Amino acid sequence: MQRRPIIIDTDPGQDDAVAILLALASPEELDVLGITAVAGNVPLELTTVNSLKMTELARRRDVPVYAGCDRPMQRPLITAEYVHGETGIDGADLPEPATAPAKGHAVEFIVDTVMSSEPGSITLCALGPLTNLGTAIAMQPQLTGRLAEIVLMGGAFFEGGNTTPAAEFNILVDPDAADIVFRSGAPITVMPLDVTHQALILRRHLDRFGALGPVGEAVRGMLTFYERYDVEKYGIEGGPLHDPCVIAYLIRPELFSGRAVNVEVEVNSTLTLGMTVVDWWGMTDRPIIATWMREVDAAGFFDLLLERIGRL
Ligand code: BDR
Ligand code: CA
């Protein structure tokens, strides 16, 4: 497999943190050009610091972290400390990073990197609200024609929302940016709740992470804290591990299956703001714009994650 150059756009968040570690532990498949932080689960200052903590935990200070947009394109920021804790990565006791964020704005980094790269080479991995990507596309619309793919965690159709009855968190926080991304014409692969709700963190996974050494122990601590909210809310055995599905797909695409569909984002209704409306059955003549994932081999996904985190 060819090594894939990627930019990770993220709002850590414990599940984002694990996704970053998975990418940094997979240099045969992935070349992480940079990490761009966005406001989401917690405010931007924290998502930036948390991204730096992950590059340090993985001993990859060479990977630059850029701070990006501190609020959605047109609306006030909604955060989720009630899920992720005050720091965003509660559960791991990690030192303050010794490295500083890279100079420049995340959106500039995305635009400059994609526009100066070989056309069709770079994949954008979006793990949070789509504000940085939407802003980059609004600034430089030709960007989308030069991408290999956008792979994003966001949206829900069959499962319903996780933040309102209709909407998933990442899309709800910045539906206007999501609308820009989905209409952009870039090749898009979506990991919605329909698939991430099958990737449940079970006790046996936590035990195996805990046995891997200091990085695995940090992962065990973060995921133990993170999953408690969903376990209680849904009354299930383990919380869904959303964002690492994006990175796992890049490494082992055969773990996932879905369908090419039209997706549109609701940006007007107060009742269903941020809903991702998927034409799963091809009932309209709207264009096919994305691959909407529906199934994951959860055992294979956790085996991959454990094997890779064990390398760090
Ligand atoms: C998404 O929202 C955040 O809470 C997670 O990090 C994930 O990206 C799930 O809805
Ligand atoms: Ca996230």
Short description:
The protein has 312 residues and is an alpha/beta fold. The chain is built from twelve helices and ten strands. The chain has a single domain (4-309), classed as Inosine-uridine Nucleoside N-ribohydrolase, Chain A (Alpha-Beta Complex), CATH 3.90.245.
Largest sheet: 8 strands, mixed
Shape: globular
The percentage of residues in β strands lies in 15-25%
- Helix share bin: 25-40%
Q: Could you give the order of the helices and strands?
A: EHEHEHHEHEHHEHHHHEEEEH
Oligomer: single chain
The rounded distance between the terminal residues' Cα atoms is 22 Å
Unreliable stretches: none
Number of DSSP strands? 10
Q: Radius of gyration over alpha carbons? A: 18 Å
Ligands bound here?
Answer: beta-D-ribofuranose, calcium ion
Q: How do the strands of the widest beta sheet line up side by side? A: 3-2-1-4-5-6-10-7
Number of helical stretches of at least 4 residues: 12
If classified by CATH, what would the architecture be?
Alpha-Beta Complex
